[in-house]
Specification:
alpha+beta; 3-stranded mixed sheet; 16 helices; 30% helix; extended
Length: 536
């Protein structure tokens, strides 16, 4: 007894500052290590695991993701604590029992995994979208009063919860797992017989047109359209029944109704003169249609045997961001002084080009840009067509100059670009022309081309106050003034450096069957190209 007692006491003394024998964290032994040694070992192995990739083999696809991007992190201190306390904490009897057990049996503890595991779940959702084969219930489509059965198909989907558990199991052993995943077969809940039994009811439900009214404007959904929206489902209580596919209804509303009823709000426009703000154009509220809510309401109404005709959907009013309140409380907005300006000349322009420049400058005149918001030139120029008042004029398209609506609007974007730089604003999108245009020189290479919908000129109001953009066209020049609050920023713009000048190539002749044989006319005069660089 004395020998046993003395031996146990010596063993306990030897491990008083060490992890007990046969103690494992995951698959890693910590036996005989001091607290600091164990902490260093865990940190090293954990770092290696989180730097590795999680790999999933699903059929013929191999999908992988960095463990660090999946939100998987180790709580080093929490992971070590349980293993370290084994045999070192608790009552005297408990410590003795654990020390005796450590001599004969292994004790396993699992590392604590912290971090944002929703990132793992999000990745598995993306994996499922890529590899799952959705099950197809039997369905019906009604055309011209006849019901046609769409046959069911089995599906296959991965078990995301099981994969998540297996990933965590791997990391509990300090290993980024490489997993083989077998999708599970899913079976239709609606059979061909179910569809056949519901055929007559489907024909009855889609036999008459559905009349919709939105603020007095009528829309008709004809039977063949309704027949494409049929969706059969199987409720556990009620069994197979007819519903309508809200996704298809949403798509129909979005393409056929929304363009006719929805209108975007229009911000108020203002002018700045002699240190005061005046209202130039009042704001106009927009109208929006809640497509999700509307599709759901239509789907529910269509399932009724007695429907409301016409069925009404309500529009929602959308307020403008910038309204007349700015004039009443101008002090809060910080529009009090000129912070930047630019002027360019369009001398020598045709009358239609001059008209387009005036029209474009007018569209942008009076716009207020709140702090942090991005300005899009294309967005504010309106629809670049005849309906907006634009005329056809020459534009650069691919490698040649052709007449299109809005020719000359690059004079507007180039002037805006220079005014935004003069104001010290952040330029987020800007593109040069494909070849030199004399209207924008000098300076060479400080132009900004636009063409709806791309490319665009964009910049951000990175000041802490609102900015009023004001345009003026005088004679053969256009000016943009930016009003706001100076905040001490200094603007430096270098003179452009011209290099790599390229001479024009050979003359290109284009056959024009509408011209008299043997006659020629210039479409474009040849001129040298160049590369430039300037610093802002």
């Amino acid at each position: 007894v004395f020998v046993l007692f003395a031996g146990f006491a010596g063993y306990a003394y030897a491990y008083r500052e060490k992890v007990l024998p046969n103690v494992f964290l995951g698959d890693m032994s910590l036996s005989g290590l001091s607290y600091k040694e164990a902490e260093n070992k865990i940190s090293t192995v954990a770092a290696e695991a989180t730097e590795d990739k999680v790999v999933l083999h699903i059929g013929e696809k191999t999908l992988e993701e960095e463990a660090s991007t999946l939100g998987l992190e180790y709580d080093i201190e929490g992971s070590l604590l349980e293993a370290w306390q084994f045999g070192h904490s608790g009552s005297f009897g408990n410590r003795v029992r654990q020390k005796i057990r450590a001599l004969f049996r292994r004790s396993y503890f699992f590392p604590h995994i912290s971090g944002d595991l929703t990132k793992t779940d999000s990745w598995l959702e993306k994996v499922a979208l890529e590899v799952d084969d959705p099950v197809q219930n039997a369905n019906l489509e009604v055309r011209d009063g006849n019901a046609y059965i769409v046959e069911p198909e089995n599906g296959a989907e991965i078990n995301k919860n099981d994969i998540r558990k297996r990933i965590l199991d791997g990391f509990h052993r300090f290993s980024a797992p490489d997993l083989m995943v077998e999708p599970e077969v899913t079976y239709p809940q609606v059979t061909s017989d179910d569809a056949r039994n519901l055929s007559e009811k489907a024909i009855s439900l889609t036999g008459e047109q559905f009349n919709l009214s939105i603020e007095g404007r009528g829309f008709v959904f004809y039977p063949n359209v309704l027949g494409k929206w049929i969706k059969l489902v199987n409720d556990s209580d009620a069994g197979p029944r007819i519903t309508y596919d809200e996704g298809k209804i949403r798509a129909y509303i979005e393409s056929n109704i929304v363009p006719k009823v929805v209108s975007a709000p229009k911000d108020a426009k203002f002018s700045f003169a002699n240190g005061t703000i005046q209202l130039l154009q009042p704001s106009v509220a927009g109208k929006n249609l809640n497509i999700e809510k509307g599709a759901r309401a239509i789907a529910e109404e269509l399932q009724k045997e007695e429907r409301t005709s016409p069925f009404k959907l309500e529009m929602e009013s959308v307020s403008a961001k910038i309204n007349e309140e700015l004039v009443r409380n101008v002090g809060r907005y910080g529009i009090k002084e000129l912070i930047g300006s630019a002027t360019t000349s369009f001398s020598g322009s045709s009358s239609s080009r001059v008209h387009n420049i005036r029209t474009g400058a007018q569209f942008i005149n009076g716009i207020v840009l709140p702090p942090g918001e991005e300005f899009s030139t294309i967005k504010h120029l309106g629809s670049i067509d005849g309906a907006s008042g634009y005329l056809q004029e020459l534009v650069i398209k691919e490698d040649r100059t052709v007449p299109e609506f809005g020719g000359g609007l690059c004079q507007v974007s180039t002037t805006l670009f220079r005014a935004a730089m003069d104001s010290g604003l952040k330029i987020t999108e800007r593109h040069n022309h494909s070849y030199r245009v004399s209207y924008y020189e000098p300076p060479v290479g400080m132009d900004a081309t636009i063409y709806s919908p791309k490319p665009d000129l964009r910049f951000v109001n990175n000041t802490s106050h609102h900015i009023l953009i004001q345009s003026a066209v005088s004679g053969r020049s256009v000016t943009f003034n930016f009003y706001g609050t100076k905040d001490g920023r200094r603007v430096e713009i270098s003179n452009p450096e011209i290099y790599a000048v390229s001479e024009p190539g050979e003359i290109i002749y284009v056959d024009d069957p509408t011209m008299e044989p043997g006659t020629e006319r210039y479409l474009e005069r040849a001129h040298a190209g160049a590369k430039t660089v300037f610093y802002y």
